[in-house]
Protein: 12834_t:CDS:1
Amino acid sequence: MHRLVLNNCYFVFSYLSLPPFLSFESSIHVVPIFNFLPALFFILLAILAAKILYYVIYHTYISPLSKIPGPAFSSVTEILVSLKRPEGRVFEWFYSLHLKYGNVVRVGPKFILFDDLEAIKFILKDSDMPKTPSIAGIRAHYNLPTLFSATYVFLKLVQSLIKKIDSLSKLSPKSSHLSNSTFNQFNDDKPVINLYQLVQFCALDIIGETAFGGSFNMVETGSHPLPMKILDEMKRRVMCHTFPYFKMLFKKDPWCDEFISKMIKNRIEQNLKTTKKRIDILQILLNNHSPLKQSSPNTPIDITDGKTMSNFEILDQTMEFLIGGSDTSAFTINMAIIMLLQNPEKLKNLRIELESAFPILRNRVISSEHEDDLFLPSHDILKSLKYLNAVIDETLRLFPVTLGGIMRQTTKDTIISNYLIPKDTIVSASVWRLHRSKQIWGQDVDEFVPERWFDLNPKIRNDAYYPFGSGSRLCIGNNFAMMEIRIMLSSLIGNFNFFFRKDADLQIVQFITPSLRSKKFEVEVTRLRERKSNNTTNA
Ligand code: HEM
Structure:
């Protein structure tokens, strides 16, 4: 009976597909189940083709998103975004798409970019949508900024940065045997330093000291693998996010995990020796540590109970802080200096303000070769300096760290910019475009004009400016970063003259956070205020 049923089935299938080499007679002598396979294969293929056809027709003509303009094939695939991400220039492409297609652009079947004020305000502020699951990052507690009020930590580490630059500025081709990644060469006998790297090292030292219990001493040692390893890890994460089905091809370098694990192990050992634990981010993470809790990149996310943290979770959060807390500020400081050097009259205005707030800067010659002859500003004064803060605001307007947009995901069908956006669509707020809208900022939108912030309509600052995001996902390091940028920027500008080659490669790339493609910002450096050595007499 069983055989009969199978044979009958076979007959139906073989009749439908009719491959000539599988005649009914010949099949009587073989096991019929195998003979189904070609027919089954064709049926599955037909189902698949029908599904693909439905998918294409639905997303191109039926879906509410089909009315939104965008590049060819974006209604059916995100492949163009995926192909552009590995270059780190997808933000530039998104910008050009807005120019071509308007305020609302479709870049994938369920991936929409918005650049108009009301839409961005709705996405980031009013609706408070969640991040897309694939990029959901740190969920650190809102109270954390209070940890960062210790300005002395900034001052100590910025002091070692300016001392380092000062010592490099004194090198001459004859005196120097030094060569590392922060110091490279001489130009007409004047030392050339890699400011990009020095600032990045200082930012990492600061995050090490404030968040993880000790500076990494990168400025001191002048070289460290951490920044490159973090960059490689960011690139890997971008590739895994872009090509999720090929995750296994992007092998993780264990260096970062080992570095962080060592840091955690040291802290646990240190805690055993003392009753007075250090209060910083690492300690907060460790206070919730549950060593037996199992979770890993491969285990489902819902095993995270929101209270305790496994080894993996601590490792991952630490990495997020290293990424979010250093590259962002370092990029902003570098871009501010680049803008100031390209606009010497703005640099002059900033120096005038610094000199009036810190009269010591007016002395062009310093009388002794004292250790503390370098200028180190008090943050209490810096935070009320109008021009300095306008320079920072203007830099963050022109170069927000979220160049490629801030992504969210709809949790229900929602109307944005008069389009019906179905549930589970990625909506990206193109803040870079909004920051460069002529209608909002005026015809000089692409120019570096700190003065525009003096009498800016508060509504524009509130609704058209999102350097730190908005809503419940607002950057928790916001105050920390502003403090760090004010101190580092004014110390650099107050102590040194920088000159850079006009043909320097300053192209920006973005892998999670933006950076200079070359990882170099080479500048000639000289002291601003000459040090008069003890044996020199007054003229
Ligand atoms: C110039 C410096 C910085 C800028 C421009 C910046 C910008 C941002 C932006 C735009 C977001 C929101 C991303 C989103 O909504 O998806 C964000 C999130 C975050 N930032 Fe910053 N950031 C800076 C510095 C820092 C620093 C110094 C820290 C830590 C010490 C930090 C920690 C974080 C964390 C933890 C989040 C994630 C918050 C969450 O997901 O709930 N950031 N940052």
